[in-house]
Amino acid sequence: MAKEFDVLIIGGGAAGLSAAGYAARAGLSVGILEGMAPGGQLLTIDYIENYPGFAEGVSGFELAEKFEKSAVDFGAKVIFTTVTGISKKSDIFNVDTEEGSFSSKTIIYATGAKHRELNCKGEKDYQGKGVSYCATCDGSFFKNKKIFVSGGGDSACQEALFLAKLSNDITIIHRRDRFRAQQSIVGLVEKNPNIKTLMEAQIKSINGDGKKVTGITVEDIPTKKVSEISCDAVFIFIGSLPNTNLIKDLDIEFDEQGYILTDENMQTKLPGFYATGDVRNTPFRQIVTAASDGAIAAHYAQQYIDSLTDNVYGEFK
Q: What are the residue boundaries of the structural domains of the chain, listed by start?
């Protein structure tokens, strides 16, 4: 198995697989380091109806397979292993994994982010069955349905506004007595006739019939009173956690939420290190934007490699 690459991609989701395809097609040697199965969060999405080219929709599993096949057909190598450390010496990156160490001229970091969860009873049981973390992805499945939105920041309010275009029965439930979102966004929520608010309350459990969500158990925080409320869906927007533990010791900058800062070329502060998809500071997190990030990163990784001196090339066979 090759241990030296032009490009090492850490993470095999939409961003990583897109980057792999573009980089391999450009004639670069490409390795994808993936701890589970290629596809990332695509594998958790039952049905995708808004990815370009699939007018009739496509399952996340099928789209992941197509992403992987495209990258592998162009020559990228998928290596199933867990990354344990990353370092850089001179112009070469060293990546330690459970399958040994790999070297590369560039790194494209595509580890994604995980949604913060309520960690309440029923949440995991009904993920994909009425529990969602993406209004753009799943909102259309609940047109004219009764929807609860959990959260109080910009994302929760913005997603509630989006859902209010699909249903006239949206309720935002928030633990505090006021929203954390920007006042301009809060103003839009307050003016929207399709949105109600339930403040100083929290979801204690998400209930269902085994196949779909049928309601929630809600606690009024000041009084501790518990009540049952029927609904068809619960959209949860209480933040997300970027997967950046591997790079805390590298010369890379992060925003206040812990997302990686890049320029428009996906380049981080560390030369030759690119970040793509949900792990970077981006205003919109979708499959199509992750794929775009990957293509851009691959293009500029190739340009960076072209700029390296001949003696660096000599270190690779």
A: 4-114+240-313, 117-236
3-state secondary structure the chain: CCCEEEEEEECCCHHHHHHHHHHHHCCCCEEEEECCCCCHHHHHCCCECCCCCCCCCECHHHHHHHHHHHHHHCCCEEEECCEEEEEEECCEEEEEECCEEEEEEEEEECCCEEECCCCCECCCCCECCCEECCHHHHHHHHCCCCEEEECCCHHHHHHHHHHCCCCCCEEEEECCCCCCCCHHHHHHHHHCCCEEEEECEEEEEEEECCCCEEEEEEEECCCCCEEEEECCEEEECCCEEECCHHHCCCCCCECCCCCECCCCCCECCCCCEEECHHHECCCCCCHHHHHHHHHHHHHHHHHHHHHCCHHHHCCCC
CATH architecture of 4-114+240-313: 3-Layer(bba) Sandwich (3.50)
Positions marked catalytic: 134, 137-138
pLDDT tens-digit map of 102-138: 999 999 999 998 888 999 999 999 999 999 998 888 9
What tens digit of pLDDT does each residue of 264-302 get?
Answer: 999 999 999 999 999 999 988 889 999 999 999 999 999
Please determine, looking at this structure, whether the domain spanning 117-236 carries the CATH number 2.130.10.130. no
